[in-house]
Every structure is written in structure tokens, then in C-alpha cells.
Design a protein that fits this description.
Elements: E1 10-11, E2 14-15, H1 18-38, H2 41-67, H3 74-92, H4 96-118, H5 124-143, H6 145-148, E3 154-155, H7 166-187, H8 190-200, H9 202-207, H10 212-238, E4 240-241, H11 248-261, H12 269-282, H13 290-304, H14 308-323
Antiparallel strand pairs: 1-2, 3-4
Length: 325
Amino acid sequence: MGKVGTGIPKLMGIPIQRNLLYVILALAAVSVIVPPIMANGYLNTVLISIVMWAGIGAAFDLTAGYIKVTNFGFAGFFAAGAYTSGLLAADFAISPFIGLIPALVIATAFGAFVGFLTLRLHGIFAAAFSWFMATTLQYVLAAESQYTRGYSGLVVPQFFSGISTLPYYYLVLVMYVVELAILLKIVRGKPGVAFKIIGEDETAARTVGVNVTFYRSICFTIACLFAGLMGVFYGHYLGLLTPDVSSLAITIQALAICYIGGRGTLWGSLPGSILIITIFEVFRPLAAYRFIIYGILLVVVMIKAQGGLASLFVKYLKPRLMSSA
């Protein structure tokens, strides 16, 4: 963190008003200090879910919010990371922390391959093809049960021994912060400018010399990398994987968190995740009706705040913080 010449502080290279910076630092301090003080196992599991899904939503938002590509095959890349690391740990006794590297390589390569095929299409065709690839992976994971254990479940070693969930909270928090910092750096640089131009008008992007296919592929591949990262965490946190990790349900929850939080913001997935996970925890018996809940929340957001929860912050809270700076 440094300062620009005007005296405005910078966070991760981004100029930010002083009072807003204080709020962000206070929230960061609370997120680090409060969990061990509370010493509440249930609270920790809820916080882990919130942060993990915020990371998943941010990865989904990179394509949905910037190049305007809805990746309905998102869960496939999540599963690719989870199963690669899980199989290496279960069958070859490779530490999850080491297995993380090949898992990211496989998720990224799979994303690059699917992106190469998918991004030449447009609209519903691109969405349908990516969904087809994720569904194909789901069936392969189920069919190759001699390797993946199919729906019996692949038992994988966890990141940490012991019953405490606190280490998992700090691990996923670090993963999320690193992911968000990298994604914000990307979208505020030259690639981000290209992503936004492509998302607004592909024809105009080509007119000004932007290599549309290249930048769409880069954006898609980066999103798949971070989907794989969160998949690795998911597998070694739960300790059990089934082919359902490649199902459309994972993609739909990522989509809902992204849109409710605020598409095209990246950080908006955090308030979106807080809202959705809290609703599911408070109304646990309604979890079976989660798709209905997603629909209701999306309709409310479209009516009341088309930019999601992030737009409410920008509209109501940020001006007040800046005015008192």
C-alpha cells in the first residue's frame, strides 16, 4: 500500500478514499481476528462457505461481467481441479499443497481447450457447448468408477489433520484475497480494457484493432484457472468427491452469486455470497428449493438494483464515506 501525489491512499495499486480504506481495513481485521475469538465450529464452516463461494463467483464474473460470456460449463473446470488434486492425493499420496499445481495446470489447459472451441461461437451456442463439455465430464467421472469411484465417492486426504475448521478458513481466505488481487490487477490493466471493449461491442473492438478471439480466450482461461483453484480447496476441505461437482447446480449457484452480488465488479460476489449462504443457513429446510430462491432473488435484484448489491454500496454508502473524508 502506498500513496499517490494527491495524498489519496492506494490499495493494491488502486486509489481509494481514506475513510473507505479505513472501512476495508477494519473489515479485513474483523475477518482475521473474530473467528478464533468466537471459537465456534459452526460459524467457521459458514464463513468458509461464504469465502469459497465468493471466490467461485468472482471467477465466474470475469467472463460474465467483462466479455459477457456466460460459462454454463463452469462446474466442469471446478471439477477438473478438484479431481486432479484428489486423485493424485488418494492414489499417489501426493500432498494436496503440491497437487494444487498440476490441478491448476489441468484446469487451465481444459479451459484453454474448451475456450478455443467455444469462443468461436456466440450467444446460446457458446453457452450450450460449454455446458455440454461439463456434462460430458460429469458422465466420464461417473462411468470411470474404477479410477474415480463414481457416485460411491472418491475419498481424498484433507489439507489439515484434526477436527478444527479454523485452518481451512484462513486457507480459503488467503486463496480468495490472492485471487481477487490478481483479477483486479488484470481488469485494471491493458487486458481489462480489451475485455470491457469486447463486452460492450465486439465489432467496435475489432475496428480499433483488438484481437477479440485472443482476449476472449485469455479471459475464459483465467476464469477456469481460478475455478480449478476453488475446486481443489473444495475437494480437500470436504474430503469426498462425486461427479456432481461437475453438475449444472454448481454453475447456477456461481451465476446467482455473481449477478446478485453485482456482475462486472468481481468483489460484488462477496456480498452476494454472504446473502445467499446466510439465507440457506437460516432456512435450511428450504435448501431443496434453492433454484426457486435464486429466481426470486434475481428478480428482486433486477427490479430494485440492476447492478446487484455492489451498486447499492456505490449508490448509498460510498458517497457518504467520501464526503466525510
